[in-house]
Structures are given as C-alpha cells and as structure tokens.
C-alpha cells in the first residue's frame, strides 16, 4: 500500500526533478510507497490540520532550505 496523497503531493510536484534520484528513491521508499506512509510528517500535517503542508517540507519533517537558489 502507498500513501493516498502521493499523486497530489506538492513536494513531488515542485522538487522531483530538483533532487537527486537517490534522495528521491530513498524518501519515496521510506515514506510514500510503504504501509508506513502514516509516519510521513506531510501526511500527518494534512490529516491533523486539514490543510496542505508547506510545499518545501520533506516527509521527515525537515524543510528544504535554499534549494531554489541552488538549482536555478
């Protein structure tokens, strides 16, 4: 089973092509494409606050800092 929010997740819409393949695979396999998707901080945020999490918050709860400057 995988996260029901994966296809609509703003994080992947904005950053899929801006992070390394290794990081993408690690995050998706650790949080999104597993029965443990409920450990994803983005999933928790959406369910607890009933709103979309910040688009630059990673599944582990950390934020991407300065990525737009780094990858322009």
Q: Which SSEs are present, and which pair or pack?
A:
Blueprint: H1 10-15, H2 21-32, H3 41-49, H4 67-70
Describe the structure.
By secondary structure, this protein is mostly helical. The chain has one domain. Helix content is 43%, strand content 0%. It contains four helices and no strands. The chain has helices at residues 10-15, 21-32, 41-49, 67-70. Residues 68-72 have low confidence and may be disordered.
Give unreliable regions as ranges.
68-72
How many distinct beta strands? 0
Instruction: Compute the number of helices.
Output: 4
Mean pLDDT: 82
Q: Distance N terminus to C terminus?
A: 35 Å
Oligomeric state as shown:
single chain
Key traits:
72 residues, 4 helices, disordered C terminus
Summarize the structure.
The protein is an all-alpha fold and 72 residues long. It contains four helices and no strands. The chain has helices at residues 10-15, 21-32, 41-49, 67-70.
């Amino acid at each position: 089973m995988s996260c029901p929010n994966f296809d609509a997740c703003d994080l992947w819409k904005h950053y899929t092509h801006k992070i390394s393949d290794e990081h993408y695979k690690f995050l998706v396999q650790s949080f999104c494409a597993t029965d443990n998707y409920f450990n994803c901080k983005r999933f928790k945020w959406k369910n607890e606050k009933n709103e979309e999490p910040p688009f630059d918050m990673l599944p582990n709860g950390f934020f991407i800092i300065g990525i737009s400057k780094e990858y322009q």
